[in-house]
Amino acid sequence: MKTTWLAWTLAAALTAGSGALAQTPAAAPAPAPNDYGKTENWLCWPGRQDACAVDQTTTIVQADGKTATETFKPAAAPAYDCFYVYPTVSAQPTGNSDMTVTASERMVVEQQLARFTSKCRVFAPMYRQVTLAALRAVMMGQPSPGDGALAYGDVRDAWTWYLTHENKGPDGKARGVVLIGHSQGSRVLQTLLKQEIDGKPAQKRMISALILGMTTPVVDGQYGSIPLCAKADQAGCIVTYVSFRETSPPPANSRFGVTDAQGHAAGCVNPAALLAGKASTEEVPLRSYLSAKGFGAVSGQAPKPFATGVTVTTPFVALPGLLSARCASERGFTYLSVKVNADPADPRTDEITGDVVVGGAVLKDWGLHLIDVNLEMGDLVALVDRQAAAYAAK
């Protein structure tokens, strides 16, 4: 049975280590830069029928088993932009991917980005990311053929092109932009924030940055000079978290959420708490959008029923009240602690998928990395809209 693209990514990275993404092979002629003036070099582009133009219709299942359908419609004239960098998905055999859009890239934007089209214009560049093959090489004890600098350089070039050519409204003024990333994409955005945004003119255009599924080391609640978001109506800040089950907190060998050797704690911001007017450390319900296709589970298997007697035919499922979360700090780890409010008396499921499972064993050091974004999707979309309003009012 094959695992999902992300499950295999993490299984490989478990052995490869996070440094695999940053390794550079022996000196070779530098690849030519991409021309981001060509729209074919973008996975998602505003107004185009592409990977982000996908159905986000959702079946809502209440605790009593009653269902309703939530339809979805992209915004007709969004007032701000979103710039997204996708996680490791490429199954190409080389150390870095080429610029070909495959089913893997399409799958991940369906889960992590397309819903944002209800609020913003979305820009998602293709980039020559470090591939699964590069991670497998390290797993086998070989040097990584992946070039992290090439991957970052592509995203930097796409960002620069976007700022120069697309970051303008009808009135000619610069538009606010939300940066969104997950896993490898978040690592790339962390570097972009350091090198191209923090303290630079571009910082004035940043509504917020969603750095998800990757440890963001902070000092006194800041990443460089950029603060973590502390309230919903705050612009120019960072939302970041890594997620673990409440019943399975980060183990000693956790890959995420750890306080580093220099004492930098992992940042944790709970979007749902900010929207509720509470601190991120307070437990609040999540507005999750879980894949009805079994995203985060074993591919080829039908997902477990979301409720007894309920057949789901939409791409997504929402289970109000089933999941809640808070930011927790313990034993040197800071993370989003996710609770399943199971009730055996109601018809809904008492469990969710999202763990990385390899050979039948749950890799607890990865937590709920497979569904980091799905867990808070509704809250993230609502939060960036509040942040955009605060940005516009400044």
Automatic annotation (TrEMBL):
Keyword ATP-binding on entry: no
Signal peptide: 1-22
Pfam families, alphabetized: DUF3089 (PF11288)
InterPro entries reported in the protein's UniProt record: AB_hydrolase_fold, DUF3089
Record key words, sorted: Signal
Keyword Signal applies: yes
Superkingdom per UniProt: Bacteria
Protein name per UniProt: Lysophospholipase
Lineage: Bacteria, Pseudomonadati, Pseudomonadota, Alphaproteobacteria, Caulobacterales
